[in-house]
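[User] Could I get a sequence and structure tokens?

[Assistant]
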Amino acid sequence: MADSILSSKTPAKESLLTPRFYTTDFDEMANLDVSSNVEEIEAILEEFRRDYNQRHFIRDKEFSDSWSKLPEHTRALFIEFLERSCTAEFSGFLLYKELSRNLKNQNPLLAEGFALMSRDEARHAGFLNKAMSDFNLILDLGFLTKSRKYTFFAPKFILYATYLSEKIGYWRYITIYRHLERAQKDRIYPIFRFFESWCQDENRHGDFFAAVLKSQPQLLTGWKSKLWCRFFLLSVFATMYLNDCQRAGFYQAIGLDARKFDQYVIRKTNQSSQKLFPVILDVDHPDFFKYLDECTEINLEIQKLEKSNSIGDKVRKLSLTFALVSLLIKLYLMKPIETYNTWTTIY
């Protein structure tokens, strides 16, 4: 495989469900006053500085096997998994790198945190991209940097969304790792062996964002914060659910049921958020996953119509999109669970 010619992977078409690249108001982020929780932030930075995974992402001889033995369909699904994962990690690297560069002079504490997290994300993206070379493909990250559209998120939205993406990433990686530890016959590729330590990077990153959020109590107290926390919880959960159910074949290839996997990850992430957010979603409500499953079925129907140019199919797609949005609104309006976090009493 080392002597094979690598082909540049054509990036997947952007959509609402593909990993996105973000930018923000760097001046506003630099002006965040984190002094009220500086001790916790410093403690997490010390964890980052120890760099527990400095020597973790080293490929061993198992990677030199020939992966042409994988069935073509499984191979295609796995390449898509690698691409999406690499793109998401690289997106995190770019955002954190820009934040560290722009905050360096005004807010050195946060700048260092973002710099160390960008280091971790760069390793993750590089390791995933190197894995793609085992399939004679490579993702042109430089091209992605220039060609992708960047979505602007206000700093507070970056904090909410990135906290959740890191925590849900932890639960995804650790759940896959634990499953494949029990069912090694389903471990179709050696990268999964690296997920246990890998997910600890995600967990520490989430803890960093949690500490920064705690330094901004206005983002975690009051009625506005409750609305935003519900919004981002639902956005992250629904995006993962729709994405994974579209790719159920990949999870089946590693011995997992995509719906059950996602439901477990959603429950665990919701529990993790209970320690920080003023409200969490009532994921045990009988209609919660029922509505998500209905969203999934509608989304699959929309995907079938994606390439059609007929007027009838366009009208059908518009109708399905309206039905999907209606279900998401129903999910958002479900009564949330109050958390009554004790840490807020110190402010």
User: Anything to note?
Assistant: The longest strand covers residues 7-9.
